[in-house]
Amino acid sequence: MEQIIKAKNGKGQSVGSIGLGIMGGAFARHLLSEGFDVLGYDIDPARRAALKTLGGRPAASAAAVTLACRVLVTSLPSLKAVDAAFFGAGGIVATAKRGTVVIETSTLPLAKKEEIRDRCAAKGIAVLDCPVSGTGAQAANRDIAIYASGERKAYDRVEAVLKGFSRSVYFCGDYGNGSRLKYIANLLVTIHNLSTAEAMVLGLKSGLDLDLVYRVIKDGAGNSRMFEVRGPLMIRGDYRQATMKVDVYKKDIDIIEAFAADLHCPVPLFEAAKPFYAAAYAQGRALEDTAAVCAVLEQMAGVKRKKRRKLK
Fold first, then answer.
1. Which domain holds residue 137?
2. Measuring CA to CA, which residue among 30, 238, 219, 142 is closest to residue 230?
3. What is the pLDDT of residues 38-67, one digit of tens each?
């Protein structure tokens, strides 16, 4: 069992966590390490068990969480999950107490974020739009940035919670600004992840050792955060331990595409990158990490690895 060392920051404050997947599970773990009392729910029993192992309190339902906690953190993978958690029987709108603040971290279309805010506000529940910039691996290492937007009073109430599971928190003003910034960040992630794969495959094709490519490029002008984070996965050529699954990221790509289209804003590099993620999905890599676009390019380049590489 991982030992949780109680810090003073949380002081035993109860935080409800709905959604304990790759991201939500990492949030809960860090909050526990900061001394918060975390009551959590996920539809997957294994994730509830994992929370208990870490020292948190698994709940039998989302309603049990919302009834007990005045601060909630939601991290949900799909629109279906969002609708169930917020608007379903026993959901947040139906059961949360007036004055509750919801930290909504999911990547969703603006229209859905606004629906969540408006329907919660009608019940006296404040919602903050707080998408996260960073991969699941970064979340596990508390190496993420949060783009918080909404009512300043609500933000001030939960700032310590936000800081409890992130590297940095930005208050971005009006509700929805967090999501707008997240779309921009993910646009760059989409491009930089593919550019990292392109660089790795060019290195392979030219006969270079990928450990050398990674070490040298990371220290130069060609580096990017995605090169640092996803490069090691591409070197190993093993994408099964996903920090962002291809099928989940497909939803994010669709959101960015619609956002840019609504604004009539050209995004040529993003548009050029999309087919490679679609190809990864079509090749049966839906549950693999998005770094699997490297495998797509390797196939196109006719590269066949003799064995999987290990980063030195």
1. 14-175
2. 238
3. 999 999 999 999 999 999 999 999 999 999
